[in-house]
TrEMBL record:
GO terms for molecular function: metalloendopeptidase activity. InterPro entries: Cell_wall_metabolism_enzyme (IPR050570), Dup_hybrid_motif (IPR011055), M23ase_b-sheet_dom (IPR016047). Residues 361-382 are annotated as: Disordered. The keyword Aminoacyl-tRNA synthetase does not apply. Gene3D superfamilies: Glucose Permease (Domain IIA). Keywords: Signal. This is M23 family peptidase. Residues 1-20 form the signal peptide. Residues 226-320 form the M23ase beta-sheet core domain.
Length: 382
């Protein structure tokens, strides 16, 4: 009995010592953390990436300012990425704020989005991610830490697509850092906030000198790519079609479109497994398929045009989890093959100057990948 009492006293003493050495942090109202869409690894330029968003909502009674974020392997605790305040600033966007509005502390009730592009080391990707934050609060400069937003990593895309256009040169236009690029434009039109363009690419055709037209760049019909066939990326069923949006003959005549008309004329293909391929801004009267029709990989669906919310003739292409363009979340995809012939580090030079040639050691023929940002490609025909 004495031995038992002595053991209990030792246990209590050790607990008291531990409590004294590591006092529990006080409970504090702060962020609600959510990863709305679990990421999947996608290959790009020989590297696997995770593209996803961490949403932070301020549930406290005072402003909060994010100071640093660690992304960790949820099983091993290994730090996969660490962003300090300088790295966070261009990746944070407050919901409802203009893209040009300077960053500030998040007020009570506000939400912001942290856009993450996580480069993975070679080998098996992590099975889970967890996020550790340090944030500031109060007028006296207090700071605290928070861990949460655990999310499972989904498998990599299993369906390998063929490109939606052929020949070339084509510029695959996208960049994760553009404040108003597809990657950062949310829509909430059906009771759910979605990011349709998470993996979207705009396809623009060039000539060998990097020009976008043979002459007058204001004349729609003279712009390279206009009228080019857009092709089924896989065997699929036509899920949705629109072909009644009108087109103007001059780029300068184009006006801002309503949300209903933003995609312009489009075709959506049901690829199965809850994935839909979207082809937007098509030429009026060019759509060759009907809802319910089965199509084969490489089959022409319509023609590249200049309808909807567009700054010039191009094909907008993405995959999503539903058949309505602006009410579906973007999902990852890769193409079976393409050849890299250069890139535009500064996209403002597209149409004015030739592209930058690839590096001597760069692998030009790519398979089962997503094209890198603003790369110039040649695409074969099946």
């Amino acid at each position: 009995m004495r031995a038992f009492a002595f053991a209990v006293l030792l246990c209590c003493a050790s607990l008291s010592t531990a409590d004294a050495a590591e006092p529990a942090a006080p409970l504090r109202q702060s962020y609600d953390l959510q990863v709305p869409v679990a990421p999947s690894p996608v290959r790009m330029e020989g590297v696997s990436w995770l593209l996803y968003e961490l949403q932070l909502s301020n549930f406290s009674a005072g402003p909060l300012r994010l100071q640093s974020v660690q992304v960790r392997d949820g099983d091993t605790g290994r730090v996969l990425a660490e962003l300090d305040a300088a790295a966070l600033a261009p990746r944070l966007q407050r919901i409802g704020a203009a893209a040009s509005e300077p960053a500030r502390a998040l007020a009570p009730g506000e939400r912001e989005v942290l856009y993450l592009e996580l480069r993975l080391a070679d080998g098996a990707p992590p099975k889970r991610l967890i996020h550790r934050l340090r944030y500031g609060y109060g007028s006296e400069g207090g700071s605290a830490e928070l861990e949460g937003a655990t999310v499972d990593v989904r498998p990599a895309p299993s369906l390998i697509l063929s490109p939606p256009v052929s020949g070339g040169p084509w510029v695959a236009i996208h960049h994760p850092e553009w404040a108003r690029g597809h990657r950062r434009v949310y829509y909430a039109v059906g009771g759910r906030a979605v990011l349709p363009g998470r993996y979207a690419i705009d396809w623009v055709k060039l000539d060998a000198q990097g020009r976008t037209s043979a002459g007058d760049r204001d004349r729609v019909a003279g712009i390279y790519g206009y009228g080019e066939p857009v092709l089924a990326v896989a065997d699929a069923t036509v899920a949705a079609v629109r072909d009644d949006v009108k087109e103007v003959p001059l780029v300068s005549q184009h006006r801002k479109q309503s949300l209903d008309d933003a995609p312009g004329n489009y075709v959506a293909l049901d690829l199965g497994d809850g994935r839909y391929a979207f082809y937007e801004h098509l030429q009026p009267g060019s759509v060759r398929v009907a809802v319910g029709q089965r199509v084969r990989r490489g089959q022409p669906l319509g023609a590249l045009g200049f309808t909807g919310d567009s700054t010039g003739p191009h094909l907008h292409f993405h995959l999503a989890d539903g058949r309505i363009p602006l009410a579906s979340d973007g999902v990852p995809y890769v193409f079976d093959r393409f050849r890299v012939i250069g890139r535009y580090p500064d996209l403002s030079q597209m149409g004015k100057a030739p592209w930058t040639p690839p590096l001597a050691a760069e692998q030009l023929s790519r398979e089962n990948e997503r094209p890198g940002p603003n790369t110039v490609l040649e695409l074969g025909r099946d």
